[in-house]
Amino acid sequence: TTMAKLTESMTNVLEGDSMDQDVESPVAIHQPKLPKQARDDLPRHISRDRTKRKIQRYVRKDGKCNVHHGNVRETYRYLTDIFTTLVDLKWRFNLLIFVMVYTVTWLFFGMIWWLIAYIRGDMDHIEDSSWTPCVTNLNGFVSAFLFSIETETTIGYGYRVITDKCPEGIILLLIQSVLGSIVNAFMVGCMFVKISQPKKRAETLVFSTHAVISMRDGKLCLMFRVGDLRNSHIVEASIRAKLIKSKQTSEGEFIPLNQTDINVGYYTGDDRLFLVSPLIISHEINQQSPFWEISKAQLPKEELEIVVILEGMVEATGMTCQARSSYITSEILWGYRFTPVLTLEDGFYEVDYNSFHETYETSTPALSAKELAELASRAELPLSWSVSSKLNQHAELETEEEDKSPEEQTERNGDVANLESESKV
Q1: Fold for domain 201-372?
Q2: TM spans, by residue (predicted)?
């Protein structure tokens, strides 16, 4: 009986634990996997509540494009432009191909020189002084390989020499000389172009780590700073900016990573730079700007990226150079300006690059440019008339009315009523 009670109590405990476990265990609801297009078309409030998507850069801060080409089936197109393909390869593959091309060429022609000597019977008359071989002192494949290297590289040590009694050898010598010159021109040209590429020149073209939005000449502007660290300048430098943001058309078509031009002075010529000292590039937020309806509170909610492109010719080589960078919403500071970096010294100007990325806070309305324009039009005042001070005046009037006692309000209301009755009489 004792064992039966113990067994029954253990069974009850186990059943109770299993019931508690069934009650407390969360129910795993498996959501159906949707295609990427369908996930993007979901309402924004649903997707944001479930997951906080991290903004993926289209262009990284160092200027490299964060795009990978996949499922490229027509790979033969790369071979049609073999020169560009070799130049675009990484250095380790380029050097490997460089060594392999020369080695294979030398081995190929060395094999042919050995076959000519073998077929003519020169190998059987090595010690015969009366025999005239095709190539003197060629006694095996190794010596034929060395003679091939001497012929193609035009070294000519003088120990192995082709004779005039071998017409097939003369023809092979002509072919190897011509093909060797072509191989030299092709491979040396690839190496020269790869070495002289101005990609490293872009490393000394710097962009500010943040972009800022503040008032300039009474207008809301988006600004960023560029600079050149070298004393040799970029000739005919020009700046461009693109807004990368997905959009959906009125017909319902979803356009991922849509590119919109950001005007940085194209019509006024301000986009053409004389980049001797760091310059602040400004974009006026007007009705044609994609930031026309974006306010300070709405900016962090936007999923956008600003890509800036600086182009020009390298003064030393004359080759075109391009530097790129980008800014996402977290790197755009509302209500800030850049710290000045240029100072006048004794006979020259000095640039302090320690302050190149520094900013300081300034008084800037938190409204969008559209709202500021509406306020200015209602007040019939120019936008340069400090809209922020206008808002401050409204706030001061409201606080003064709140500070007045109820009796003063009643008296004032009574006076207004008396004036109205007198006007009626």
Answers
A1: Immunoglobulin-like (2.60.40)
A2: 95-119, 169-193
For residue 18, the model assigns a pLDDT of 42
The residue assigned the tokens 């240029």 is 342
Name residues whose C-beta falls within 8 Å of residue 365's C-beta, 6 or more positions apart in sequence.
Answer: 215, 220, 372, 387, 388, 391
Domain boundaries of the chain, sorted by first residue: 75-196, 201-372
CATH architecture of 75-196: Orthogonal Bundle (1.10)
Residue 227's alpha-carbon distances to 210, 239, 281, 336, in angstroms, are: 14, 12, 11, 19
pTM, two decimal places: 0.65
Per DSSP, the three-state class of 414 is helix
- State the pLDDT at residue 336: 96
Predicted pLDDT at 20 = 42
Cβ(117)–Cβ(74) below 8 Å: no
Helices 387-403 and 369-379: crossing angle in degrees, nearest 10, is: 70
Q: Are 307 and 244 in contact (CB under 8 A)?
A: yes
Dist CA 411 CA 391 (whole Å): 28
The span from the first CA to the last CA of the chain, in angstroms, equals 110
- Across the 425 residues of the chain, what is the mean pLDDT of every consecutive 10-residue run? 48 45 38 45 43 74 87 77 85 92 95 92 82 88 92 85 89 93 91 82 91 94 94 91 92 92 92 94 94 94 94 86 93 95 91 94 93 85 51 54 49 41 39
Q: Is the distance from CB of 210 to CB of 332 less than 8 angstroms?
A: yes
- From the number of C-beta atoms within 10 Å of its C-beta (0-12, 13-18, 19+), residue 145 rates as middle
